[in-house]
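Design job #97: recover the sequence.
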């Protein structure tokens, strides 16, 4: 398992073993890998919250539903809009005076 999945650590290998009917501790897995001269998995990089949001921004959407009182027509309009966080493009799928109407 360690050779086929070099990014897996001791705990990940230990977690994969119960599916095969084996129950051993992570320290036992570590000893076996050390005996076979298989190096441990490389440490994972720690990303900050800002880095996470930057990488996920392309798929993140923000939306809102609000009202606008139009002084010219004396009507209340209901607006639904979507903001794509990665590009900061605003999409307005709908504006209506009757949000519950068909």
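Job complete. Output follows.
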């Amino acid at each position: 398992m360690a050779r086929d999945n070099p990014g897996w650590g001791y705990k990940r290998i230990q977690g994969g073993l119960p599916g095969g009917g084996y129950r051993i501790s992570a320290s036992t897995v570590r000893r076996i890998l050390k005996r076979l001269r298989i190096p441990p998995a490389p440490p994972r990089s720690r990303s900050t919250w800002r880095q996470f949001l930057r990488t996920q921004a392309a798929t993140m959407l923000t939306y809102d539903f609000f009202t606008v009182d139009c002084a010219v027509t004396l009507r209340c309009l209901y607006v639904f809009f979507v903001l794509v966080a990665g590009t900061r493009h605003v999409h307005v799928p709908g504006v209506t005076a009757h949000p519950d109407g068909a």
